[in-house]
Amino acid sequence: MSRKLHLNLFIHGRGHHESAWRHASATPLALTDIEYFRQLARTAEAGLFDSIFLADTLTLGDEIEHSARGGLEPITTLAALAGATSRIGLIATASTTYTEPFNLARQFASLDHISGGRIGWNIVTSWIAGAGRNYGQDQQMGHAERYARAEEFLEVATGLWDSWADDAILDDRRSGRFADPARIRSINHMGAHYRVEGPLNLPRSPQGRPVFVQAGSSETGRQFAARHAEAVFTAHLEKFTAAEFYADLKSQAAALGRPSDQILILPGLSAVIGSTEEEARRLWRELNELADPRVGLARLSSRFGGHDFSHLELDRPLSVDDFPDPGQVQAARSRAQVITSLVARERPTLRALLHSLAGARGHFTMAGTPEQVADLIEDWFRSGAADGFNVMPPILPALLDVFVAEVIPILQRRGLFRYEYEGHMLRSHYGLARPGSRFFDHAG
Ligand SMILES: Cc1cc2nc3c(=O)[nH]c(=O)nc-3n(C[C@H](O)[C@H](O)[C@H](O)COP(=O)(O)O)c2cc1C
Question: pLDDT, tens digit, for every residue of 366-382?
């Protein structure tokens, strides 16, 4: 069977453009109204998307006056969406820095049971400096330490998901044996950061464990992804950097003996779609005119760990000297890299930089017709820059509706995208193997 495209819907506020919440075509529903998320999940499922994704940051941030923030907690929300859908995958972010592995393991195993095997976990180390202050930490944990902790966290969580064999439950009313204790075991983990006895207190889930998603593109982030990720979200403003990232990560994974089709790479794509290119550009301009530079400046600062850019003039061309060295940034290192590379390449004014980041925070943005969006998708897919895309509609639900109604049929006619779901689990949508337990073989 020929290689097929994978599409994930990244749900974010009322759309990914910074000022989407103010646009007349954005949803009138509150960000705490579960019906809003049910509608989006059902539309994406009707469009045969592989999955939907809910991000999470463990702090409100300081732009609440001028930007739509303050949404539902993702794990709780996925439980509700599992009941409102039947085939689409459901991915949520959870932090390895500010969560206990035993809690996370039981939450995601429960969701995988509840959804019939449709769950994915976006593994984040929580780059935002302010999050620590909600967990009793004055100092932000360093980049390297966050990843070292994440490594052990995964060791523990995976051990807990493997602590039950698939056939441990007997449920034998006649003999009075509910489970076979020989098919359940402790993990007795003793590590630098965690001491966890186990076993997990619920049986192994339909997928064995959630699909591992990851989104850190720094050197350390790539090494982590090469070892563990099954799907990788990444931000690129240009096809050539996406292709470089793709080739590097696939070769790192191959060097660890991992087949190329077991680590899928999905760059972000935020497309303003119009029936003509001019119409799309007009909508893009409308959104940028609604953008508030104070929001853009606050976001830029947080990407660089709180660096103050407020002294910079809005209409003077920037240089990389105006920015901290991204290699030393303890926050979102790869995103800082994306931004300084853009500045080095194009020397934009601060206003122009904030406009280009207002679209999708450093992910690829475009304005065009459905045909032009499909052409872009086919080009990156066929030229080794992507296995699929993290679809980031600038305005929700309007530009998701257009994507499903106009772009999906073009991708199907070109033989790039499915006409029906292959199976019932997220792993079958992504073509990923079901992992065995490190403690038990399936045969019993
Ligand atoms: C599509 C996408 C989604 C992300 N979602 C989250 C999120 O929900 N929460 C979070 O704290 N970080 C999120 N991140 C940030 C990454 O987890 C990571 O911290 C960031 O890319 C910097 O990683 P690096 O320092 O390894 O380059 C996301 C990144 C991308 C590209």
Answer: 999 999 999 999 999 99
Task: Specify the CATH number for the domain of residue 18.
Answer: 3.20.20.30
Residues 283-298: pLDDT tens digits? 999 999 999 989 999 9
Residue 139: partners with Cβ closer than 8 Å, 6 or more residues away = 132
Domain count, the chain: 1
Verify whether ligand 1 is closer than 6 Å to residue 235 (CB atom). yes
Distance CA 234, CA 244 (A): 12
Instruction: Determine the atom of ligand 1 nearest the C-alpha atom of 217.
Output: 27
Amino acid at 200: L
Does the pLDDT at position 96 exceed 70? yes
- At residue 1, the pLDDT reads 53
Lowest-pLDDT choice from 31-40, 58-67, 229-238, 423-432:
58-67
Provide the residue range defining the domain that includes 224. Answer: 6-277+364-430
Provide the terminal-to-terminal Cα distance of the chain, rounded to the nearest Å.
33
Confidence of residue 404 (pLDDT cuts 50, 70, 90): very high
Task: Give the C-alpha separation, 410 to 374, whole Å.
Answer: 7
Average pLDDT of the segment spanning 93-103: 98
Q: Is residue 80 part of a domain?
A: yes
332 CA closest ligand 1 atom index? 22
Query: Global pTM?
Result: 0.97
Q: Which atom of ligand 1 is nearest to the CA of 56?
A: 8
CB-ligand 1 contact for 57 (6 Å cutoff): yes
Q: Which long-range contacts (CB under 8 A, 24 or more apart) does 145-148 make?
A: 146/96, 146/97, 147/216, 147/220, 147/221, 147/224, 148/192
437 within domain boundaries: no
Q: Is residue 81 part of a domain?
A: yes
**Cα(103) to centroid(ligand 1), Å:** 21
Calculate how far, in angstroms, residue 316's C-alpha sits from the geometric centre of ligand 1: 30
Examine residue 155 and state whether it is found in any structural domain, yes or no. yes
Distance 102 CA to ligand 1 centre (A): 23
Provide the pLDDT for residue 139. 84
Ligand 1 pocket residue status of 333, Cβ below 6 Å: yes
Residue 218 CA to ligand 1 center (angstroms) comes to 10
